[in-house]
Every structure is written in structure tokens, then in C-alpha cells.
């Protein structure tokens, strides 16, 4: 994608160079030498300013291209990573992303937070505590390390033993 401003600055620089050449031809006239010299200096300064502006814009565009290339690489990495997981229901109460059974990995069994996963983040559920006294006491509470979402499931269910 070409920036219109960059083209405009390039055209301005080209016109300035043309004007410089025309001014040099005008310098042949000895009577107007001093006036033409000042015009030439002014044209040179204008050309230098246009070139400087064009270089600044070029640098900004190159930086933008680098940022976009980095973003594309991050998307490609995430697309590869997310293929290793599938959405699972845990204890009929919680949705998590778990490793596919056929995923080739040396990682220990784990669950990923569905909220964070859908925001392109790999965030693990960590065991947090057991439930409060009463009917929930036999439940484990797992918490997302990033967004702090919690799931309450029976204590005998964990990533290595999903049900």
C-alpha cells in the first residue's frame, strides 16, 4: 500500500530538482547571478526538506510493516497451538479447552480457560482451593491464572482424570 503523502513528497522533490536545474541555467546571466543564487539556495533547501520528509515517512512505513509481520507471525503461531486443543465439558458444569488425545506432547495434562483461549491467550486453570464447608466442601475450585475465572468441580476430577 503506497501512502499518498509519500508520493506527494516525491513529486515535490522531483519538481524542486527540476526548478534547481532551471535556476542553474538562469545563472548564466551575470546580471541576475545574485538573485538566482538565492533562488537556487531556496530551492535546494526545499528539496532537502522534501527528501527529509519522504525519508521520515518511509521509516514510519517500514516500522508499520515490521509490526504487521510480527502480528502475522503471532497469529500463525496461535493457529498452530490452538489445533492441539478441543473444547470439553468437565463434570457437566464447566467448559475448558483440553489437549486432544492424539496431540503429540510432553506437557503434563492441563486445562485452558475458555475465555482466555477465545482471546488468543493460553491461560491455565490452576487448583485454587476446596469448596467452603457444607455441600460444596467436597468440590475443588480451579482458577484461571489470567482472568481469575473459577470452576467448581468434584475433587476427584482433575486434568489427568477428567471424569
How would you characterize this protein structure?
- This protein folds into two domains: 4-80; 84-154, no CATH class.
- Helix content is 47%, strand content 20%.
- The chain contains three helices and six strands.
- The protein has helices spanning 4-26, 33-82, 114-117, and strands at residues 85-90, 94-99, 111-113, 125-130, 139-144, 150-154.
- The strands form two sheets. It has a three-stranded antiparallel beta sheet.
- Strand 5 (139-144) and strand 6 (150-154) form a beta hairpin.
- Helix 1 packs antiparallel against helix 2.
- It is rod-shaped, with a radius of gyration of 33 Å.
- The two termini are 53 Å apart.
User: Total strand count, please?
Assistant: 6
Helix percentage range: 40-55%
pLDDT < 50 stretches: none
Global geometry: rod-shaped
Q: DSSP strand (E) fraction?
A: 15-25%
Annotation field: number of helices: 3
Nutshell version of this structure?
With about 160 residues, the chain is α+β, with helices and mostly antiparallel strands.
